[in-house]
Amino acid sequence: MLFASMLALTVTTWFGPAQVAFDAKIPGNPYDGRGNDVRVVFVAPDGDREERLAYFDAGRWKAWLTTTHPGHYRATLMRNGEPVAVPAAEVVVPDSARLPGGFVRVQGTRFVTDSGQPYFPLGHDLGWRYPDIPPLTELLHRMGAAGMNWARIWACAWDGKNPVLIRHNAYSPQEKDIWREQAPLGEFLPSALGQWDELVGAAEASGIRFQFVLFHHGLFSTRADANWDEHPWNRANGGFLDRPQDFFTNETAREYSRRWLRYAIARWGHSPSILAWELFNEVEWTDAIQKDQNWPVVVAWHNEMAAYVRSLDPYHHLVTTSSSTQHPELYAAMDYYQPHAYPREVFTAIAGSKPLPGKPWFYGEFGRGTSELNANERMVVRDGIWAGMLAGHAGAASYWFWERVVKLDLYSEFAHAARVLKISQLPAHPQARPVAIEIAGAKPAPLLVAPGRGRGASTRFHFELPGDATPECLAELSPLIGPLQAGEPAPRPIEFAFSAPADGQASIVWAGLAGAGAGIRVLLDGKEAFHQAWPALPDLKASDVWRRQPAPPPIVLPYQAGPHTIAIEGLGPAWALLDHLSVPDLGRSIRAHAIGDGTLALVRVQADEGAVPAAVDLRVAGLADGPCKLNVMDLGTGTDREQSAAIAGGMLRGIELTARDTALVITR
After folding, report:
1. Are 611 and 643 in contact (CB under 8 A)?
2. Model confidence at 543, in pLDDT bands (50, 70, 90)?
3. Cβ pair 367, 400 in contact under 8 A
4. How far apart are CA 635 and CA 605, in angstroms?
5. How far apart are CA 550 and CA 546, in angstroms?
6. Are 121 and 111 in contact (CB under 8 A)?
7. CA 351 to chain centre
8. What count of Cα atoms within 13 Å lies in the side-chain half-sphere of residue 530?
9. Rounded distance, CA 398 to CA 417, Å?
10. Of 27, 125, 552, 606, which residue is most buried, by most CB within 10 angstroms?
11. Is the separation of the CB atoms in 123 and 149 below 8 Å?
């Protein structure tokens, strides 16, 4: 948005916050911002006037003041534009209450703070509390200690943070409650509001800025993580909505939604630790989209609520939502794009994505395309973080499974990334983009071709190997071979063409089969080499769209030296899940990806087992000959060393690799 970019051009210092509270008896619903438009006017001795929304809490009306002008203020409580008959209050915002950084703004396709410093999100999601890990307040402190600066927290019912519904003794969307508590229609639950006070305070103390997720899909869905059957606004529960789809158009629902937005701005908007108001988590999974495909009403709701937030928020927090970017009109009123990704191959999907233009873009959720714990979850996390960094996104991709960060103690992955960002100063290089890199000295190795898309269909069907084995190309390859759902027509076969340097055998490795059944046919050079079908599971339900059967054995394809084409066709009735294709000697035992701008290059070098220690020569596009500084970090241990080096003939020669995963920071 233009206003956000303009704000970022001026360095601003904020002070505060200071709070004022009034004992005032005001009739009517205290959460009704139209009937009770309660505000506080702060007036300085020189006549400067600042107005803030007031909020009702524990029988009192309160307001926060964060300001660019420290000093003394006289505070007056107002209702519907008229003073309330209570004594004015004196408020002091001292010079010492300087807020470091201030609020985050958008500048082009990057983020910057009011102090003029770049802000590069690095962190993981923190949606809700699980009973077997510490509370979110403690986890925020752990994140800050590990060098993180970003989180994303939901207003959800199952850990008591939703303002209209609390599910007791239930800590996941699917788990059923023992009993639940719901707010009277048009009001909020004080216990839920109090939790957010603690979270905002912990974020401030930890140096974390978080996305405040105000609504999530499950409450308005009967299909995906469905919570509609317990929503207080559901007519079956004494509410006023007949269908979850009506949430986006019903005037009462829209009014109650505005009340929640207004209250959040009034009570927590003073804090720079709120990076953005996230209007909705994954709105594409609501019934309005899944059943009706009614994108226009969902877009209209987002436009209305974004405009409403901006009309009230004196600090101009960023506004976003999280959804598929296949409907970019949803993001027209948002300040930045926030896609999510759950592919088989994390690095490929994120690094190979094509960001929509004009605004910052980074992944607010990622995980490998399986719900179960992976054999090497640490590498999944590392791949996601580094994919966002090396792709030139506005922030590192953000890992979804925060409970695994705790239980597997994955904090070091974020600490190492934070140190690399500090050494490289990558956030201060907004023009840095992915650049070509060549490695001399690596031996031939099998080429692993893994799909980079999630649950969507393939958009590319022919790959020339090894040249097309890049994130940009493989991000168009879906692991779903065959129809996405039973009854759909089978898509085109996927073809892989290559020239084999010697006799060998390729392997097609699977990750599973659709519960609805699948069929696979493989052609080698136009001749059928494999053909098999698997029936549907006998106990399959209509709602089990993504239920899987175990993976079949790998398909082995012997061939002779020379050119070949492998075609994989999914015959249905539903999909087979491709894990990867392996072709001998088309890959290299040491591989690298890089980002740079001519004065900086950040490189990640990965080596197969047994390929290190090794000395390699690198050619990074854009780096001219001359002396440079080289920092080498082992991404497994975090140990690093700095040395002087030189680029000659376009090559940086004799780099000693001792670890299988290494970060190189090259600066001029």
Report:
1. no
2. low
3. yes
4. 10
5. 13
6. yes
7. 14
8. 22
9. 12
10. 125
11. yes
